Amino acid sequence: QKEVEQNSGPLSVPEGAIASLNCTYSDRGSQSFFWYRQYSGKSPELIMFIYSNGDKEDGRFTAQLNKASQYVSLLIRDSQPSDSATYLCAVMDSNYQLIWGAGTKLIIKP
Amino acid sequence: DAGVIQSPRHEVTEMGQEVTLRCKPISGHNSLFWYRQTMMRGLELLIYFNNNVPIDDSGMPEDRFSAKMPNASFSTLKIQPSEPRDSAVYFCASQGGLAATTQYFGPGTRLLVL
User: Fold this and answer.
1) Any residues with CB less than 8 A from the CB of B62 and at least 6 apart, and which?
2) Residues in B touching A98 (Cβ below 8 Å)
3) A59 to each of A78, A83, A107, B87, how far by Cα in Å?
């Protein structure tokens, strides 16, 4: 069974520091990888996607992909209290279906 | 664009009653997904459609659940009869196509079955 694993947290990070969120996946054939953010009581929203090995940067966010290790991460620089949310990792399988992780709760402490 | 629209936003019902959740995807999107989210099980895919055709309903928990997409702009998820364990947030999401990069989620329907 295809799986996506995340540490449920909560991960507590001081304001201004770097938050590092990690995700591993089981299906070696996966090609597309997504990070969604979900605020409490709200719906998930896409913040980053990555297809190729290496880093992809968008503002304060950097997604990192290592297909050999089946590992994808999200770094948030200069963390702000508004970044406090649950971050969901999702992996698209060969049938174009998203396999979702359980999410990591991130708390940014002022 | 109004985004994905779901109704109702909240539903409280008694065990045994029929519940119908509704979704209007983003215009032009031809893939639609129904999810259920609980604290215990996280986000679970129930069923998805492509061009109004159900592609995979293996996530539908049991025969009490059914979903339809009669046209490109409307889908329903029905639970009959409802049970307390069906209490969850139900999300509808749409996507430009199966190979598109982004699923856009609706605001969700919070269902409580007493």
Assistant:
1) none
2) 45, 103
3) 10, 13, 20, 38
C-alpha distances (whole Å) from B95 to each of A13, A98, A106 are 33, 12, 27
User: Residue A31: what pLDDT?
Assistant: 85
Instruction: Specify the residue for token string 């396999």.
Output: A99
Amino acid at A88: L
pLDDT at site B99: 64
Cβ within 8 Å, pair B45-A98: yes
Locus of tokens 């507590």: A12
Residue B102 has pLDDT above 90, yes or no: no
Residue of B nearest to A32 (CA): B101
List, for residues B26-76, the tens digit of each pLDDT value: 999 999 999 999 988 889 999 999 999 999 898 898 899 999 999 999 999
**Distance in angstroms (rounded) separating the CA atoms of residues A34 and B3:** 20
Cα angle A91, B57, B32; round to 5: 65
